[in-house]
Design a protein that fits this description.
The protein is mainly α and 276 residues long. The protein contains 11 helices and no strands. 77% of the residues lie in helices and 0% in strands.
Length: 276
């Protein structure tokens, strides 16, 4: 009697974890559709702390989930003509190379899971600060007029494309190392260094994130265990969440939610620090 009851309780707990995890996967997609980002910084903690996936495996799975969801999120931008494939592949080649290198760096013995999670938490705080303060771009950049137009921002340096490629390499290494999507850095880089309109930068960044996910994941394949079924189901649920988030964006002002999302990232980052 008691063994059967214990088995039933274990099954119930496992089912509950699966349900909660997949509901949170939907939130990943909603955040992408509603805010245009945030998927990667939510995916890894969910996989590690809710689904109890080992960090290195979770990072590899995060790259796939966020990559596919980013492609789904890029579709409406593509339809509106806000994806620049030339810039995506130019910047993407650098970030892909960096992501593949970062993934191979991550599997070296001296790069422990603790180091990766601490780096990830630091990146979460950086992302949160940029979201809250918007101090990476000039204030006028975020005005309603500028946000709703295709106005370009003049490059900040005469060798902007060189800096763009170098920054792409650095971002790529971090992506492969800790699984962060990097959209919060890619968009400003495209705007300030690539002379890209904000709407086009957002759409193009989603394609770049997807390319990074492919490259980074290839660096992990065969070197860490992967839960393919969980990865597939998370990707599917998050993709549906993206469409729902895009629908909500018609009724909700994303700018009103960004600060709250930034503070939420800080809370999650602190939680990760405490766990380590």
């Amino acid at each position: 009697m008691f063994p059967n009851r214990l088995l039933f309780e274990n099954i119930t707990v496992d089912m509950l974890i699966q349900i909660i995890g997949h509901l949170l996967a939907g939130c990943i997609g909603i955040s992408l559709g509603l805010l245009g980002g945030g998927g990667s910084v939510l995916t890894l903690p969910i996989l590690v702390y809710v689904m109890e996936i080992p960090p290195k495996s979770a990072i590899a799975m995060t790259l796939v989930i966020v990559g596919v969801v980013s492609i789904v999120g890029a579709i409406p931008h593509w339809r509106k003509g806000n994806v620049n494939l030339k810039k995506a592949f130019l910047f993407g080649k650098a970030t892909m190379l960096g992501a593949f290198f970062g993934a191979n760096l991550a599997i070296l013995p001296f790069i422990t899971e603790k180091i990766q999670l601490l780096l990830f938490a630091i990146m979460m705080i950086v992302a949160a600060v940029l979201i809250i303060q918007k101090n990476l771009l000039p204030p006028s950049f975020f005005s309603k007029e500028n946000t709703n137009s295709n106005q370009k921002v003049q490059p900040v340096h005469r060798y902007s494309w060189l800096w763009l490629i170098l920054e792409g390499l650095g971002i790529g290494i971090l992506i492969g190392l800790v699984g962060v999507g990097g959209g919060f850095v890619i968009v400003p880089a495209l705007v300030l260094l690539g002379n890209t309109p904000i709407k086009e930068a957002i759409g193009t960044s989603l394609v770049i994130i997807a390319l990074n996910g492919i490259a980074g994941f290839l660096g992990y394949v065969g070197k860490v265990p992967l839960d393919w079924s969980l990865m597939a189901s998370f990707t599917l649920v998050a993709s549906f969440g993206t469409f729902f988030g895009a629908h909500l964006s018609q009724y909700v002002q994303a700018k009103q939610l960004e600060k709250g999302f930034g503070y939420f990232l800080i809370v999650v980052a602190v939680f990760i620090f405490i766990q380590q």
